[in-house]
Amino acid sequence: MIIAETRDVTKRFTLRTGLRDWIMRRRIILTALRSVSVTIPDKKIIGLVGESGSGKTTLGRILGGLEPPSEGTVEFMGSALYGDHSSPTGKIQFVFQDPWAAVNPRFTLSQIVEEPLLLLGYKPSERVSLAREALSSVGLPQDEQFLGRHPWELSGGQLQRVIIARAVVSRPALIIADEPASMLDVSLRIGVLNLIMSLRDSYGTSFFFITHDLAQAMYVADYLYVLYLGEIMEEGPTESVLRQPLNPYTLSLVKSIPTIGSKKLEAIRGEVPSPIKLPSGCGFSTRCPIASTVCRTSHPELTKRGEDRKSRCLLQ
Question: What one-character-per-residue DSSP string does 25-80 give?
Answer without folding.
Answer: T--EEEEEEEEEEEEEETT-EEEEE--TTSSHHHHHHHHTTSS--SEEEEEETTEE
